[in-house]
Amino acid sequence: MADVTVYKCPSCGAPLHFDINEQRMVCGSCSNSYDLEYIRSNFNEVTDEKPADFNWIERTKYVWEPDMLEQLAEFSCSSCGGNIITKNTSASARCPFCNHEVVISSNFSGDIRPDKVIPFRKNAEEFAEKYREKIASAGFAPKEFRDPAVTDNIVGCYIPIWLYSCSCGCKVNNYSAKYKVTDYPILGTDIKKEAFYSVAPFLYDKAEDFTESCLTGFYASRYTIGAEHVLDIVEKEVRHACSSRASILAGGDYIPDSQNAETSLSDLKLMYYLVPVWFLNVTYKGEDYTFAMNGQTGEFASPKVPFNSKNKLHFWAIFLVCEIIAFLLTYCLVKEDYMDTWTGLFLTFLVTVFISTIPAHIIASIIHLVHSKKYTGGLMPDKPYKVQNVNSFIEEM
Question: pTM for this one?
Fold first, then answer.
């Protein structure tokens, strides 16, 4: 079985947990607290076993690359000896027998140990407050979103990411340019990209040397998209983006894979980080809506929330009124002999349906906008999901 670490209080033996407000490991029993440096020095935490000259770029062929599907694995609790069954990619779990939070150290040992970690600085209640302010208080949101108990499902996760940096030289015909890519984040796991990138960026200069103890009480996993695979993808993106910029500045249109564009990459750097994100999934009519908050900066993002049944009732009521008004106006403006035929009445009905639909939508939306008193949710999200690409991280040198 893999190595599992339990952090116990040196004073009373009770389990320790990472306190976001204090940024220390705190005992829930005697309230003693210990900083991360003390934990590194006094606990049998797996140390960084990488060679002194370790470099992800040069050693991608030698480090662990995922070669199997995610599956269940069995681990042994170092506190009570009980068996813990969880995903083989999980790096933290809770023992079902002694209820201790444990860290599965073997998923962070040797070459696959993260370089840095950004501890949580925003707690779950801060996320819940933003959620209630932005979404749950909206009058048009379905009851599934406004249920006070929904915030009980907030989960804190440490997400594995890769940070890529490089210099890129481009030559298009007789024009030359040099660009720099700095800290381009690439997900190291298979989650919803839109939710993650919508709460970026993170303050990477505030990261700590990796310490397993701050993972206690949160969900964490090792990377499942390895360095070699990431490099294959990101280098193509960088060459394409830089060549496109150079081609435009040279006065031409960029043609993908054009022989006229020459690129060279240098000063390559790849770092492995764990970053904090709060997630909340709300299921409505069989569809999952994922809300996210940056656990370091507090940046909040939400999907487009569907309207509740009130909106539909308002729409049909307004539509009926608009339809009657439009029909009467049309009847008054056309010849009576034409309106006396069934064909004329049917055509008039079709025209008025088309005319009434747009105003009905607009008026119903305004009613719900005024009722909610906020530009949020399904009307105008505070910060909708976005897709991030390398262009946002390129600078001209």
Answer: 0.73
Q: What is the pLDDT along the chain (397 residues), one digit of tens a residue?
A: 446 777 888 888 888 888 898 888 888 889 888 888 888 777 766 555 666 667 787 776 666 666 554 555 555 555 555 555 555 566 666 565 455 566 666 667 777 788 899 999 999 999 999 988 877 555 567 778 888 888 899 988 899 999 999 999 988 777 788 999 999 999 988 777 788 888 888 999 999 888 888 888 888 888 888 888 888 889 988 888 888 888 777 765 555 545 567 888 899 999 999 999 999 988 888 888 889 999 999 999 888 777 665 555 555 666 667 667 766 666 666 555 555 566 666 666 666 666 666 666 666 666 655 554 443 333 334 445 566 778 888 888 7
SS3 state of residue 235: helix
- As a whole number of angstroms, the distance between CA 271 and CA 57 comes to 9
Partners of 97 in the β-ladder: none
At residue 272, the 3 state secondary structure works out as strand
- Helical residues (DSSP H) of the chain, grouped into ranges: 36-42, 124-131, 143-146, 193-198, 227-249, 309-333, 336-339, 342-372
Write down the domain spans for the chain. Answer: 4-301, 309-372
- Give the whole-angstrom CA distance, residue 39 versus residue 134: 38
Question: What is the CB neighbour count within 10 angstroms for residue 58?
Answer: 11
